[in-house]
Amino acid sequence: MASLPAWLGEPERYEPVDDRSSFIEHNLAHLGGMLEQVGAPLPVTHSPVDRALCAVSPSLRIIGVPAAIVCVNATRNMLFAYVMLAVVLVMLAMRPARMIVAIVKPALAVCVLSFILSAPSVFIGQYSAPVRLVVKAFVAVSLVIALARTVPWNHLIAGLKGVGCPDSVIYVCDVTVQFIDILGRSMVSLLDALRLRSVGRDSHKLMSAGRVMGALFLRANTQAKQMAEAMVCRGFNGHYHVRRDPLVTVPNAIYALVIAAMIAFAVYCG
Amino acid sequence: MLYDPQSVTLAMHIPDNFISPSTGAVFWVIMIPVWVLCFRSVIRNSTPEKMAYLGAGAAFSFLIMMFNVPTPGGTTAHGVGGALIALLLGPQYATVAVSVALLLQALLFGDGGLITLGANCFNMAFVLPFVAYGLYVGLRKILPDGWKERVAEFIAGYIGITLAAFCVALELGVQPLLFRDAAGQALYFPFSFTVTIPAMLIPHLAVAGVVEGLVTVVVVEFVRRTAPEIIEANARVTTSDGPASSAHSGLRTSAWIALGVVALLSPLGLIATGDAWGEWGAEDFMAATGLDYVPQYIAHGFTWNALLPDYSLAGLPDIVGYILSAVIGIAVMTIVFRLLALAVRDRKAVGAKA
């Protein structure tokens, strides 16, 4: 019977020095949340507001939402901002609870940031700035997020054609979203590998982070090459055509009228 | 969250309502020709390869922008990565990639505004990569290789992001001077230059700039070591008249057009309202900041416009004065840079003879 060498029999207590490698956890959490949003299927909305809005073409809504934001932004009279806040809140209240959470969370984050940034202005005599910025920020951000959460991203990007974006830009945006998903996943696995291997104190965190980014860049390069080759095999010649949705429909006309009424009201409020 | 270094770079994304719609529109007008030129120069012959690389590059910059970089003390900060992409792929490419990333952030994630997208792209997708790339190309002539090259990369990232932050400070700081209601209350961002410039520049000079510079060095060196063939075409711009010169001339054309646009747009500062860009006198300063006193520098020794008083030359309408001052300013800058380039060339010629 073979006996164990003496050094193997000795008890060993290895306690690695504690370290805070929060950048790995931060990035994993951050990326995980983002990938969930990118890849998530469109939440089925039961709200009458969204059902009605879904009939409107995304191109028109991409014009309508910035128009609303410009109106809120440009009016000096806060009456208009409060009316818009009421409209936005009523629309929000009619949505399913999960959707409300998804919209309110980022909107409140921007409101908090606006408040923190503008609160000290009270000391230099600018009493209205905090309220003004917070109310307007809430209206603007919740309008944009509601649009992003209720229209599938590919429809939204295709809708950019309605605002005069060339087809090639829309194609690049489309490919980008897909690459964000692919590269995001490879970044998660790179960070996972890094987390498993980092034992003890790592004094070269920045180098590790830099290498993760460098490896991601190389991965983006090979992935792009492979995709281009695959697309050539499928007969892609570099020209991409986006179908234009018919613009003259009843829901579109009603939406345009509502936006026009809103602009008129904004001008009236001044 | 308040003291998190993340909020430092969060400030680089200006949300809607922080600047006036007219300011937002000015930056859209500036950016549209820049986008068209950069996109055209990147995609000159639209081959499937180029299109795929554009998408991958934009996705890469999107991910880099949300990557938390470790900072001492176990905390993290965000970089923008604009300098990195400019050095790896070229500045026009960086403009397109970062702009697409910012558009998707604004449209799909509500990060940064839609009206302010032009301004955000101007700061992070135009000023940052072009300044970083220009500095890098210039510095490489005096800092050719080895550790010196890394110094050039660091300076490119450091100065690039600091200048972008300075632009943000100017855009935000001009708001209370231009847009006030009858009661003197600011309509948009409430603090003027005295607050925004130190608030943006100090954290960027001390932390964010260092992070951006170090990230640029580490990643560019990593890519150079592992895949030198990718970087050869862009980051290692040869000083001889090789194939790089055509890319160079494209860069020069777009820089000229951008400068021209800025010069033509400068009168918009007048159209907006009374006083603009650092021209306020002592009374305006008191009214704008609500302070009862005027800091000494502003009251006496602090003049931006020592050479061209009030930007309007005597006896001319204001707009003509504005355009003239812009043309003179740009011409002076160009002359200085051309003289610097000549000095570098002469030194090299002397070195070659010896």
TrEMBL record, chain A:
Membrane topology recorded in Swiss-Prot or TrEMBL: Multi-pass membrane protein
TM region positions: 79-95, 107-127, 133-151, 247-268
Keywords tagged on the record: Cell membrane, Membrane, Transmembrane, Transmembrane helix
The keyword Calcium is annotated on this UniProt entry: no
Subcellular location, record wording: Membrane
A Pfam family the protein falls into: CbiQ
Any one GO cellular component localisation term in the record: plasma membrane
Name listed for the protein in its UniProt record: Cobalt ABC transporter permease CbiQ
UniProtKB/TrEMBL annotation, chain B:
Source organism of the structure: Bifidobacterium callitrichos DSM 23973
NCBIfam families reported in the protein's UniProt record: PRK07331.1 (NF005598), PRK11909.1 (NF008873)
Top-rank lineage group of the source organism: Bacteria
Localization (cell): Cell membrane
Transmembrane segments: 18-39, 51-69, 81-107, 114-135, 155-174, 186-206, 319-344
Keywords: Cell membrane, Membrane, Transmembrane, Transmembrane helix, Transport
GO biological process: transition metal ion transport
Domain PDGLE residue range list: 255-345
Pfam families referenced in this protein's UniProt entry, alphabetically: CbiM (PF01891), PDGLE (PF13190)
GO cellular component annotations of the record: plasma membrane
Membrane topology: Multi-pass membrane protein
Name the record gives this protein: Cobalt transport protein CbiM
